[in-house]
Specification:
alpha/beta, 260 residues, 3-stranded antiparallel beta sheet, single chain, 5 helices
Length: 260
Amino acid sequence: DNFLDHGIEGGVDGDKAKERFEKTFEKVYEGEEFDKPWFISAGDHDHDRNVTAQLAYSDRSTRWKFPQLYYAFTKQIMQRKVMIVVTDSYNLERELNFANKNRKKDSTYVVVDENAPQLAWLKETLEASTADWIVVCGHFPLYSVGEYGATAVLQQYVAPLLESTGVALYLSAHDRLLQHIKVNGSCVDHVGSGAGSDVSTQLLNKKSNPKGSVKMFYNDKPGFALVLVSQHTLDVKFVNSNGTQVHAFRKSNPREAGQK
């Protein structure tokens, strides 16, 4: 979530919105090291009020990049094309749950595209990609040990797409902790980084994930995840608010021959 507890109130040029952007973003991330593009994804709390104000803020800020609720872009890093796919998992979950309620009783894993347009977009985007690396982002996790736990409908419909297209990482938040989950036999590492300003002590779903999939979880202090791209590997590091690395892993590229 970008703005707890209930998102942005009013229009982007209103006094309350201006104050919130200034206090929560502009004045927090000051300095040369933060003078970079920030590519934004909305969480459920952002949808509580006027999420379109966050989209509109892209025209007010040189750093804030939020062109649509879901979008994709490609960057050239270390001579590799890296595609970042940003989903609107809040609406995607709602679309898929609606489709589930309306699908025929004798059908399995079938979604009517008209009822889940974002899933159709995601499928088309991933299957058409020529990038060397693909990273998908969504606020809701597919798997989690935290208070809210897994998002079952995303496991059902999104996970197979990530697998079939060789996605390397799925980045999420929602639960307020750091976590690394990888299902045995899967090409996708699930990186949860929802502890930017707060942590939750409620680990209600520690035993709800596939056996052996939970590689790490950390909720002692706030922190963040850092992804470093090289030609053939990704290095992912989890760092707490003291600057201490609490977990790390190196990942080979599932889109390279023999890895997918």
